[in-house]
Design a protein that fits this description.
The protein has helices at residues 5-10, 15-23, 80-85, 106-115, 118-143, 146-156, 158-163, 166-173, 177-186, and strands spanning 26-30, 35-37, 45-51, 54-59, 65-71, 76-77, 92-95, 99-105. The longest helix has 26 residues, at 118-143. The protein has nine helices and eight strands. The protein is α+β, with helices and mostly antiparallel strands. The chain is 49% helix and 22% strand. The strands form two sheets. The protein has a four-stranded antiparallel β-sheet. It has a four-stranded antiparallel β-sheet with strand order 2-7-4-5.
């Protein structure tokens, strides 16, 4: 893993700051069906997916898993509230496939804030980006039909459709498996 040149340029990171940043990240391998984070525990790491696929989910009142996000290659994994506020997570994050991550601990991240002032701005911008993603997802549930949400998933993340279960996809777009089957049957691409 290396810091994207655009990020380094945008935040005026020096070679020394880039090296210090990278020294805080360590590799982590997670086997399929193992957890990156379990509900009720405090999130102690931010992860960057190098290889594999993970998903976040909660349990509804009937103990059904409701998928809230997928984390394919080149995405950031964090439970913001838990990580930043040191509170127990309300979500689970689990590997769908054997996955290779680069992770940084809460303590190392705090060191970066102190040693590299730009990291405060980088993390604020990342939080803003993730907030916009969550708002967009909430808006989709308000204004799009289940079929439109499925089509958007197909367009934006066609690889995920081949890599996860129909149950995870159905819960992600907010329908049951029977409804997803009807949507798929009527939307052959």
């Amino acid at each position: 893993m290396k810091i994207d040149d655009n990020i380094a340029k945008k935040y005026n990171l020096t070679e020394e700051e880039i090296a210090l940043t990278m020294s805080g990240y360590v590799p982590l391998t997670i086997k399929a069906n193992d957890f990156f984070l379990k509900e009720g525990l405090v999130c102690n790491y931010i992860g960057f997916v190098k290889k594999g696929l993970l998903r976040s989910f909660i349990y509804d009142d009937y103990a059904n898993e409701i998928t809230s996000d997928f984390f394919p290659e080149n995405t950031l994994i964090i439970s913001f509230d838990s990580f930043n506020n040191r509170v127990p997570s309300k979500e689970n994050i689990k590997a769908i496939e054997d996955s290779e991550l680069m992770v940084i601990s809460y303590e190392k991240q705090k060191e970066l804030y102190d040693k590299i002032p730009a990291w405060n701005l980088i993390c604020r911008d990342l939080a803003d980006f993730k907030s916009r993603e969550m708002i967009e997802r909430a808006n989709r549930f308000q204004v799009m039909s289940a079929t439109e949400r499925y089509r958007a998933l197909c367009k934006e993340h066609p690889d995920i459709l081949q890599r996860t279960t129909l149950g995870s996809i159905a819960s992600y777009i907010g329908v049951d498996i029977a409804t997803l089957s009807r949507i798929r049957r009527n939307n052959r691409f």
